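User: I'm putting together notes for a lab meeting next week and I want to include a structural view of one of the chains we've been expressing. I don't have a solved structure, so I'd like a prediction I can at least talk through. The sequence is below, exactly as it appears in our construct file.
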Amino acid sequence: MPDRQRPGRAAEGRRLPGRGPLRFLAYAEEAICYSFLVVLVVVASLQVFTRYVLNAPLSWTEEAARMLFTWIVFIGAALIVKRSSHISIDILVKVLPPAPRRWLCVVSQLITLTVVTILAIKGFRLLQITGMSESPALGIRWAYVYAAFPIGMSIMAARYAYGLISLLRGSAAPIGQPPTPPVAEFPR
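Assistant: Thanks for the context. Below is the predicted structure for the 188-residue chain, given as structure tokens.
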């Protein structure tokens, strides 16, 4: 039976090699997402408990849950790029011969890279304009919450740039494009 990749793990071979800071950065976003998810579940559970059981809701739980959710969404989007798991319409890619398929993937990667780079730049500009105000319940600057967007877009841009370079060199499948799925084999 041929060696198969597990679903959702298409980009596993593209993780950063080595030890130390690069390996730490390669897994930092996963640690952030999963940690924030655990804290979000605890905060939301606390909110439900204090509101419906004690009938005395806490003022800060809803705000904290929204802040955590914002970070989970944008760092999670970058994490999904890392795993090449974003939804894509790939019917044209599957029917084209290898050479045009490669150039279609180059154009797709370039367009996506351009869009996420523009979004990252605009996101950092937005931080300069609106980030000085503080949240009412927690007193946290909104810049810390709004930073999730440009940081997530920057990570995505870096990944798409790496995928584009790899694609142009011909060394790997582009990030964001799933590899050709294995053919299902049935027992005989």
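A couple of points you could mention at the meeting. The CA atoms of residues 119 and 153 lie 7 Å apart. Residues 20-169 form one domain.

User: Perfect, that's what I needed.
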